[in-house]
Q: What sequence folds into this?
């Protein structure tokens, strides 16, 4: 189901000063370019990892079967999930008080009743995801953003080249691979 962003991020995952220092730029003359490259790099890192780097409120409608609400639960992506705000059935029944967040899955609390739930349906979940403001974004993800921005900065002005590289540099791919969700 589609992900809806209810509140956009309040700022970048990596402050402009940090990216400028990484690029060894002393002036502010290229700040617009650097900020654009860092924003594109942040989007790419979020896309590659399935994470939200800066806090924002999200909403998703998820199809479910009643049996899934106990175990294994509903997987919420993107993460990391900071807070569950609402869990509401398509019938309007509010399940928020009956749900718990187990780190990666949304499940019914122990002892919660199921008799009034339909066998299957759609549940609307509203949550806040993301790391804390920029200092809370892990250092390796900040490094990946800065490395991608540096690649884009080095490519500026080259014939036929602009923006971030289509393929991730090996060091960035190694960093992001650590966060990739593996499915069997």
A:
């Amino acid at each position: 189901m589609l992900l809806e962003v209810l509140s956009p991020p309040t700022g970048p995952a990596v402050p402009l000063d940090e990216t400028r220092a990484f690029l060894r730029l002393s002036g502010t003359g290229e700040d617009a370019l650097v900020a654009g490259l860092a924003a594109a790099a942040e989007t790419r890192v979020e896309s590659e990892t399935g994470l939200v780097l800066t806090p924002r409120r999200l909403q998703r409608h998820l199809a479910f079967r009643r049996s899934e609400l106990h175990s294994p639960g509903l997987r919420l992506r993107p993460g990391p999930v900071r807070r569950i705000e609402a869990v509401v059935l398509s019938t309007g029944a509010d399940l928020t008080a009956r749900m718990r967040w187990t780190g990666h899955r949304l499940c019914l609390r122990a002892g919660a009743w199921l008799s009034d739930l339909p066998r299957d349906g759609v549940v609307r979940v509203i949550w806040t995801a993301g790391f804390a403001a920029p200092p809370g974004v892990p250092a390796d993800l900040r490094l990946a953003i800065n490395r991608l921005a540096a690649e884009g900065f080095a490519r500026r002005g080259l014939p036929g080249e602009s923006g971030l590289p289509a393929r991730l540099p090996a060091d960035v791919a190694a960093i992001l691979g650590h966060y990739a969700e593996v499915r069997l």
